[in-house]
Every structure is written in C-alpha cells, then in structure tokens.
Amino acid sequence: NMSFFNRQRNGKGTVAETQYQQQPDHNYQSQKNVNGANSVKEMSTGNVKQQQQLVFHCQQAHGSPTGLISGFSNVKELYQKIADCYDFPVEDILFCTLNTHKVDMLKLLGSQIGLNDFIFAHRKGRPKEIEIIKHEDALGLTITDNGAGYAFIKRIKDGSIIDSVGHIQVGDHIEKLNGENVVGRRHFEVARLLKEIPRGATFTIRLVEPLRNGFGSIGPRGDPRMSKGKKSGYGTGKETLRFKANGNVAIEDEHDEKVQLGIERVNSLLDSFMGVSDVELATQIWEHAQGKSNSMDFAEAIDSSDLEAFGFTDDFIIDLWGAVTDVRAGRVK
C-alpha cells in the first residue's frame, strides 16, 4: 500500500526530488538445512501450472557454512528463513546480494532471484554516528531499501557532501536522523527527510555498516566495470523467481535485453526524481507502459494504479514515457 505522497497531477510537485543522489574461502561443502517443510511454488505454462520445489543456497557474507533455504514467498520470509538457518535474529540482516559476498550494489537481491542464484546475507556490523553540515542542497546519496524496513546507501556521488565524509560507505544502513528512528520507513521517505533538512543546518546521522571479514569486502561504488567480463560459477539460470507487488510469486523467464534496458532507464529516472533505486518499482512502471501508444494513456494507467500515490508530476510522466519510447524505437543501446 503505497500511500507516501499526495497526487500532484496539476502543478510542479517536488516529491522527494533529491540527488541523495572479503574474499574468504567459503566452505561450499558444509551444508545446513533450514528446519521446516519446503514450500511448493507454481510456475504457469499456458493453462497448465507445474509445481516444483525451490531450494536456494545461502551463506553469510562474512563467512559461514552453506545453508539450504526454501519455503518463502517474499523478501521478509526469505530473511526469516536465513535467520532460522543460522540461528540469529532476523533483524540482524541488512540486505542480501546475489552471487557475491561483497557489498556490491549491482548485485543486490531485490524483487527477483534467478533459480540458480547463490544468496549472501549481509548482517549488521558496527554502528556509527556522524555530524554533517548540509552546505549544499544535495547530499549526494542514492538510497534504496531491503524490502523489510531497512533503508541503506546504494550510491555516493563523487565530490558530494557525503563523499567528503570518509566514514560513510555504500551499504551503510540509515538507522536514525537527528535521533529519529527511521527503521521501517521506505527509501523514498528517508530521502524526503534528508531533502527537508535546511541548507546550512547541521544534522546527525546514525548508520550501521555491514559486518565485514577482513579486507576487500566492499565493492566499488556502482562501478559497472567490475561486473563485466567476469563470469561466476553460479547464477547462470534463465528462469527467475519474482516477488510481485500484489504478494504473488511467479517463476518467469529472464527479461529480454530490450525490457531490461527499459527497466534500467526508468530506474535511472527514479534516482534523479526521488533519490532512490527500486528495480521493482521501475518494473511496475515499465509494465504499465505496455500496450500504450501515447503518454496520456500511460499517465491514465499510472493514475489508475497503486503508483498514483507517488504523486509523479506531469513532467516526470513525460520523461518516463520518453524513456519507454526511446527503448522501443532502439534509440538507446
């Protein structure tokens, strides 16, 4: 239920318009089964629904035996299964990455998991409080969340206020702002709070960094070069388990390149407009554009859905439609 912003169809609403904007040797042989029965997921193949048992391999990112995880239908349930497997509080999980133990924001687990993906759970590490003077309008953060109540830093803009603070890193969970607990708030709510801090004001941010094991556990700040030309021994399946906004779970084929490019373009616009990264939201927006031949029909589809609550402005809707049509026409590679 996305009731975070009021609709501002007429006018120039500024909805959270911000730019906020290890390699240990893992034991892949020692395996630990999570207690409980494995659930059965449904895969639609035309009018026939095949049932199959889905089991995913998992480790704690700082090092652990391999666990076998199954029986979940959303991210919160997945986190609980991981916590049960390793016998620690579910609140300890900050986020998960796929096929790498590093804090690599290009590999975040979001609304979908490849059927062969290996899950790495990143747990809470050291807390830290930092006092910052907001001497510019934009702090230089992009914020996302783990789908279970924790907002964290996905990107830090080079040369920004946050970049100049050496103790703040990608992957840090934002726990409090000026003493106010923001656990449980979505990423766009946290971005809005940061945007509303007056220029020139001093504020305190409490962060919790991911638990680390030695050195080399943090990936580059959104450097796509690190994901090119490197092949993993796992995560090469062509089918994906996708958690949908309506609570359903489905096994789907991977998006083709054009659809994936479109979703990435929409997500980039979300970053510019709201200071957040949300592949699931971008996917929903892209899907609402399917079958539409003009921006008016697209805007009507947005207004008639749960996305209406975000209060996207007319100009932003036009930008989104432009991204959709550019990808459709092959103007973007």
TrEMBL record:
Residues 129-209 form the PDZ domain. Pfam families: GIPC1_GH1, GIPC1_GH2, PDZ. Residues 16-30 have a biased composition (Polar residues). Residues 1-30 are annotated as: Disordered. It comes from the Eukaryota. PROSITE patterns: PDZ (PS50106). InterPro entries: GH2_GIPC (IPR055349), GIPC1-3_GH1 (IPR056814), GIPC1/2/3 (IPR017379), PDZ (IPR001478), PDZ_sf (IPR036034). SUPFAM superfamilies: PDZ domain-like. CDD domains: GH2_GIPC, PDZ_GIPC. Belongs to the GIPC family. PANTHER family: GH21964P, RGS-GAIP INTERACTING PROTEIN GIPC. This is Putative rgs-gaip.
